[in-house]
Amino acid sequence: MTDSPLQPGDALDGFHLVERLHVGGMAEIWKATREDMSPPVALKAPVGRDEASALVGFEMEQMILPLLRGPHAPRFIASGDFSRRPYLAMELVEGDSLLRRVGARPLPIEEILAVGRGLAQALAALHAQNVLHLDVKPSNVIRRPDGVYTLIDFGLSRHEHLPDLLAEEFRVPLGTSPYLAPEQILRDRSDPRSDIFAVGVLLYFLLTGARPFGIPHSRRGLTRRLWRDPPPPRALRPDCPPWLQETVLHCLEPDAAKRVASAAQLALALAAPEQIALTARADKRKADSWLKVRRRWWALKLAPTRFPQSLATRRASAPIVMAAVDFSAGLAATDLLRGHAGRLMRATPEARLACVTAIPRRPSGEASDGTHRRRLVELRRWTESLALPQARATVHVLETDRPADALLDFARENHVDHILLLARAPLPGGSGLGPVAERIAARAPCAVTLLRPPPPGAATDATEPGEGLGI
């Protein structure tokens, strides 16, 4: 392996180094070009090559990055062998690093909301591909020009189906100390909710200007977060809305089982922050008392051994279920849909239900006729009869002229795992499904359950005759 420092003008397997973009403790990143390729790429090479952690982390990134798809991670291009000069060529992601916004903290509430939702969507996409990032921090987040958030630097990441070389070779917590989740400090690298904890730290930092757990440099300093909570954001920033404090402190729960159940559920909640269920977390004005902290410390000491779950099992235990509610189908049909949704939610206690309906889009400039508000009220009543905790269900009204496309877009953007809808009004000469149901069944990115319409003679009074999904 060649150890000489890289210089502008050097060539690696046809890549010509143009400009050093960044140098860190474990790697440096160059802007590079290749004659058969446009635009320029980012070329990453390890530095401090005598450090085992740098080499192993680089090897893990070389294994993981080629397996990732989509805009939430850089596109893999090529890699170099360790026998000569190791490198990793990838997409040079255009956009703004979140690190540039750190100096402007505290940030506006609207921007923090956008960061939180964008990060949650990016993590949900990674988790769906069996990858935990495990080093979420401002310098590893880029906002593309189209608003999509991309995570970079997978040197500390873990892939469910690859050997975790870092866990096998090192006996210390690995990561950036302010953002490490309690379970990472205990050397558990298997829980996707560790990434949610890091999002909570990042949002707290951007919201208040302070890191919730400081920058600890010792193991004793690191372990304090296992039982010691930070001051609530509203104690440091009075204009913080209750829903945002609720979200941040929910992400920062020391016990992973008490955090937001998944990144996809966090993204769905932040898509409609006014529907976030508020608990005692939202009203906190100071950190927990010494007595409560002491009880938490003893609970940790006496807790049974925590056995890691597979990422697939963790995802399956916290799905997002979308019920496409068509009020024009009649009472018996909507009751049938509600009954099926209720059984699914009772069977999966950590599941989230998104109740969705569609109404025709109003022509531009036309005054509202109250349909949107009326549908929201009807959806809430429909959901309340399921007797679910408020935190487990949200309602959404989509204004669209193409209900099938709108429902499919909602499912993709919110990482829905299961769609429930009725099949009725078959297309002439078609499959026996309605026009919306047929398209959703054919193109959905997840499981779809089509419910048989109620038998003739069942109650079929529509809430609004002639108005609905056309399923």
Structure notes:
One of its GO terms (molecular function) is protein serine/threonine kinase activity. It comes from Rhodoblastus acidophilus. InterPro entries: Kinase-like_dom_sf, Prot_kinase_dom, Rossmann-like_a/b/a_fold, UspA. This is Non-specific serine/threonine protein kinase. Pfam families: Pkinase, Usp. By secondary structure, this protein is an alpha/beta fold. The protein folds into three domains: 81 residues, Phosphorylase Kinase, domain 1 (2-Layer Sandwich); 218 residues, Transferase(Phosphotransferase), domain 1; 125 residues, Rossmann fold. It is 35% helix and 17% strand. The protein contains 17 helices and 16 strands. The strands form four sheets. The protein has a six-stranded antiparallel beta sheet with strand order 1-2-3-4-6-5. A hairpin with a 3-residue loop joins strand 2 and strand 3. Helix 3 packs antiparallel against helix 6 and helix 16 runs parallel beside helix 17. The chain is globular. About 3% of the residues have low confidence.
Write the layout of secondary structure elements.
Blueprint: E1 11-12, E2 15-23, E3 27-34, E4 37-46, H1 52-64, E5 76-80, E6 87-91, E7 96-97, H2 99-102, H3 109-128, E8 131-132, E9 141-143, E10 149-151, E11 158-159, H4 165-169, H5 182-185, H6 193-208, H7 219-223, H8 233-236, H9 242-251, H10 263-271, H11 280-283, H12 290-302, H13 311-317, E12 320-324, H14 331-347, E13 352-359, H15 371-384, E14 393-399, H16 403-413, E15 418-422, H17 435-443, E16 447-451
Parallel strand pairs: 12-13, 12-15, 13-14, 15-16
Antiparallel strand pairs: 1-2, 2-3, 3-4, 4-6, 5-6, 7-9, 8-11, 9-10
Helix pairs in contact: 3-6, 3-10, 6-9, 16-17
